[in-house]
Amino acid sequence: MEQTKVNTPRLFMCTAIENKDEIEERYERAYNFFQSLVADCSEKEAHDALNNAVCKNHEDVSLGMLMSILTEPHNATKCYRDLTLITRDGLNSVLNNLSTLILERYLKFQDMTRNQLLWLVKEMIRNAVTGVDSVCWNLMRYASGGDITPKNIILVESLLDIYIDNRMWLDKFPVLVCMVVYTYLRLIEDHNIPQLMALRQKEVNFVIALIREHFNEVLTLGRDLVRLLQNVARIPEFNQLWQDILMNPKSLSPTFTNVMQLLQIRTSRRYLQSRLTPDMERKLVFLTSQVRFGHHKKYQEWFQRQYLATPESQSLRSDMIRFIVGVIHPTNELLCSDIIPRWAVIGWLLTTCTSNVAASNAKLALFYDWLFYDPEKDNIMNIEPAILVMHHSMRSHPAVTATLLDFLCRVIPNFYPPFADKVKQGIFNSLQQIIEKRVLPNLQPLFDSPKLDRELRTTVRETFKEFCSNGNGEGVSGIRDEGNDDLPRGGPDEPAFSDDEDDMLPTIAEDTDDDDLPLSEVRARERPELAAAMPLLLRPFAETLLDERSSTAATALLNACSSPMPTATALADLFAATLQEAPPLHINRNPTPAELDTVMNSPIFSMFNYLVGSNDSNEAKRKLVLETFKEIYAQSSVHSVGYCLLFYLKVCYERERRAEKDPVKKRNVKFKVEVYKEYCSFLELKLAESLADDFERCQECDANVLVWLIPDVYREFKDQVQNHIRLLHIIVSTLDAGQLQRLVCLTLQGNLMMFKSDDITTMLSTSLGWETFEQYCLWQLLTAHEISVEDVLPIIPKLSYKDHAEALTSVLLMLKQERPTADVVRQMFCRTVDDEDTFVVSTVMYWCQDYEDKVADLLAVLLSTRYPGTSPNKRKRPGKHNIPPNAPPSAELVLGHLEQIRVCCVEQDDMSIFNMECLQKALQQSQSNSSDSLKRQYGDLFSLAWEDELPISRRARKMVSNSLPMNPNLHSSNEDSEEEEIVKPKQAKRRKKAISDSD
Fold first, then answer.
1. Helix/strand/coil for 444
2. Whole-angstrom distance, CA of residue 150 vs CA of residue 195
3. Of 12, 140, 151, which Cα lies nearest the Cα of 71?
4. Which residues contact 521 (CB under 8 A, 6 or more apart)?
5. Residue 674 phi/psi, 5° resolution?
6. Alpha carbon separation from 832 to 828, 863, 889 (Å, rounded)
7. Concatenated DSSP letters for 359-397?
8. Is residue 430 within 8 Å of 389, Cβ to Cβ?
9. In 621-742, where do the E strands start and end?
10. Distance CA 112, CA 102 (A)
11. Cα Rg for the chain, rounded, in angstroms?
12. Residue 699 backbone phi and psi in degrees, to 5
């Protein structure tokens, strides 16, 4: 076997420090299995063996033969022939595994493996194997653009030769034809060096033939076909094709009218995806879905070294940008997170580009969907990255924004002059959609930024004047700004900055690089457009609010809201911006009225004023405020609205109580709980979960606020919050010792009720995984609420002395305050017996100090009822229908715990409990009815039951347990003296509480 492993050929390249992976081991096992079938066999014997084996293990036989084909060229022809003869699924499993191998491991293939793979594909095409076209599709993804290394060129040319030699087969697969056209059009662009001219000519001839013969199928490629054709338009054959497309479209297809027909079709995402290798795709997806903004530079540097380090790789940037724009469409959750956004990745690709041609192509790739954008057919996610690159680069990389705006202005007349109006309309549709969908609330700060030079600003204004003014000579910000550039800046003899210097002077201090900042800070700095998104009359109020960030400014703004009302989105953006940099809500443990008034100066509290009361004149504003809160919640821009509302209602409640002098009226002051309920209803939130979410945010902000709110929340929302596990965990994870004491005191005063006995077991079971102090707080609160021992009984058998020490200790102390009962003893004895677990022993021995007779009776009954056929209490036992649902402990568990008690009694030199008559009889009956193994296991315990007559002192001990006086000098023999030594400590403990100081 070892020899077989050593001789197994290698499918992949690996370094000395790399271990075999799962796939390689699987193929090696299959190869060894295949070799064991055919080794030392004649051809007929080998064929019979393979046929027999393939019926039982088709997958392994097929994989073993596939590996032989890929690694042993000398056996490949014979092995492929045998494979086609024995296959039971038309080589379907081979094709599936081959596609998986290509997508996941192609880059690790040995050179021989790559050559054999191409040979196998060629053979399967020649034999018209169904499904081989999907293998070709996956293999073509590794024919990478921007790569003219020998290995890549060999793959490109080999695939081309296969298609040329099997042209009739290729013609049967229209989708694969489109893939071949799209791929080789892109590759031809890179093959413009003398060494590759022969290959390039072969590619040109083949692609031209495919386009002309399959033009109707190729039309489905859409607008990116035009983009690729533009890059190769100078090649004579493609120049002629362009002439036919523009001047004689009917010669290509009777249904083809003009190039606009192509440009209005959005290219399928699978073609955009196909121009990146699977490895590149995985890295870009990881970058845009897992890496946090501010921690991305090391990943980008690695990507740059791996894929963009050569001059030829510059052309790859266009492919990557088209992939990011057209294929990576993040979810709303991802857009709201701190993961690096698409615009940041695209900005990095643009700023690191060193070739002017590649840079122009990259810009066209970025804006390509803008040129003929149709809101009915196109996706806004395809145009969003470009506007955000310009918007966010304006601050730290204004040159990037300037070049992109310049490109956008120039592309309108220059893309294709006869279609200039259509291109302009497409770009206008894009900008209109950006405004409507709130990608940016306003384009004025971007199009009229002082960081742009005068000529570019003029061009942008002329090109996009509809987005730069409101028709009254005013910019979108409401400030008349036409002709500002012509204002004199100084007298003829006074020194003055040049235009460029003057434009840059006010912004030098702001031009810091945002690349290493968290995304939330970058967003927080982008504020100039917020006021401009408001109606004209409200803009001064909005600007005042942005400056002051006070409740007074917010109230003035809301009071000024009238027809036309601002949109909820604009108001949400404005208030979110004012709150993001506001200090967190914070109070002292016992806040004073003055402190509360200071805290309430935040803008958000002014909004709550419109939710309280039922004044009809404020109904429109009330609805606007609720819609604003709904928008804020949807954007996840501010997380404190809910608990700030609870805080506001609490402050209002305290103010009203403080203002009321009459004690009766003071008690009748109501906490306006309906306001919070309406807030949750409008936002379609579940009340209990919303409270838990708000308490979680409050916990992160300030524990004092949370503790201050707890009594009112548990009073007003008791049906939703009592026993709410998540909410309770939030609370106990927040408390310190002083805050816990405060809650305990409130509970003892009757002002706080956090628990109800219904279903408390579920909560207790869940709490077992909490931190130590959290569980300590929980049990302190439970104790303060006087939760009965019956409520905690069900969890006693579940508690592990190793893992649940906190709960076990609390239950132990709770039992210490209780009298022994049958239910408690039964649940205790259901615990697993463990020498290190002293819970049962400790409880029983403590109870014996005051209730020894009772404990002995309970233990005797529990032990006797494990042997129903011989139990002396048989007549007293309830019928089966009266047995409680929680099963009693087994006889072995009872004996195990009694044995632990016996050991403890021996150590304390006090066996009195086992000398009780009831327990003696129970032990005798148990021994009589136990198996031999149990008798051997608990021999020491059963030996206590074999004394026919008790010593006098033990009988005296029994008398003491019945509260009869006893003379300690009654017996004087040595035996009696020894017995007295056993009795005395027990007597002392039992009489301890009755002994006075005078005694």
1. helix
2. 11
3. 12
4. 514
5. -65, -25
6. 9, 16, 10
7. HHHHHHHHHHHHHT--TTTS-GGGTHHHHHHHHHHHHH-
8. no
9. none
10. 14
11. 42
12. -60, -40
551/605 Cα distance (integer angstroms): 7
Q: In 3-state terms, the chain is what percent helix, strand and coil (to 5)? A: 70, 0, 30
- The C-alpha atoms of residue 830 and residue 95 are separated, in whole angstroms, by 59
Q: Are 787 and 813 in contact (CB under 8 A)?
A: no
Q: How confident is the model at residue 144 (pLDDT cuts 50, 70, 90)?
A: very high
What amino acid is encoded at 202 in this protein?
K
Buried b (16+ CB within 10 A) or exposed e, 583-608: eebebeeebeeeebeebbbbbbbbbb
480 strand-pairing partners: 474
Whether 134 and 103 have beta carbons less than 8 Å apart is answered as: no
C-alpha 701: how far from its chain's center?
A: 22
The amino acid occupying position 798 is K
Per-residue pLDDT at 480: 35
Task: Please name which of 139, 135, 175 lies closest in space to residue 154, comparing C-alpha atoms.
Answer: 139
Structure tokens at 521: 């800070």
Half-sphere exposure of 367 (CA within 13 A, CB side): 28
Mean pLDDT is highest, among 225-229, 286-290, 302-306, 604-608, for 225-229
Report d(CA 779, CA 777) in Å as an integer: 6
The length of the chain in residues reads: 999
- Alpha helices (H) in 415-466, listed in sequence order: 420-436, 444-447, 454-463
Give the CA dihedral 470, 476, 479, 481, nearest 10 degrees.
-80
- Stretch among 116-120, 478-482, 758-762, 907-911 having the lowest mean pLDDT: 478-482
Question: What single-letter amino acid sits at 959?
Answer: M
pLDDT in tens, 272-297: 999 999 999 999 999 998 888 878 88
Exposure string for 741-760, b = 16+ CB within 10 A, e = fewer = ebbbebbeeeebebbeeeeb
- Residue 497 sits at φ, ψ, to 5 deg, of -70, 150
Contact predicate 227/368, CB 8 Å? yes
- Of the pLDDT bands very low, low, confident and very high (cuts 50, 70, 90), residue 886 is low
Residues 70 and 120: their CA atoms lie apart, in Å, by 8
Cβ(829)–Cβ(897) under 8 Å? yes
Lowest mean pLDDT among 409-413, 670-674, 926-930: 926-930
506 DSSP 8-state letter: G
Contact 801, 832 (CB under 8 A): no
> What's residue 239's pLDDT?
93
User: What is the mean pLDDT of the segment spanning 454-482?
Assistant: 64
**Cβ pair 733, 695 in contact under 8 A:** no
Q: Does 86 score more than 50 pLDDT?
A: yes
| Bridge partners of residue 109, in order along the sequence | 12
What is the widest separation between alpha-carbon atoms in the chain? 133
Question: Is there a contact between 397 and 351 (Cβ–Cβ < 8 Å)?
Answer: yes
pLDDT at residue 967 above 60?
no
d(CA 128, CA 119): 14
CA-nearest of 275, 299, 302 to 286 is 299
CA angle 144, 147, 149 (to 5 degrees): 120
The fraction of the chain above a pLDDT of 70, given in percent, is: 83
Query: For residue 339, what pLDDT is reported?
Result: 86
Let me know the angle formed at the C-alpha of 463 by 459 and 468, rounded to the nearest 5 degrees: 95
- Ranges 8-12, 446-450, 958-962: which has the least confidence: 958-962
Kindly tell me if the per-residue pLDDT of 142 is higher than 90. yes
- Report helix, strand or coil for 143: coil
DSSP code of residue 940: H
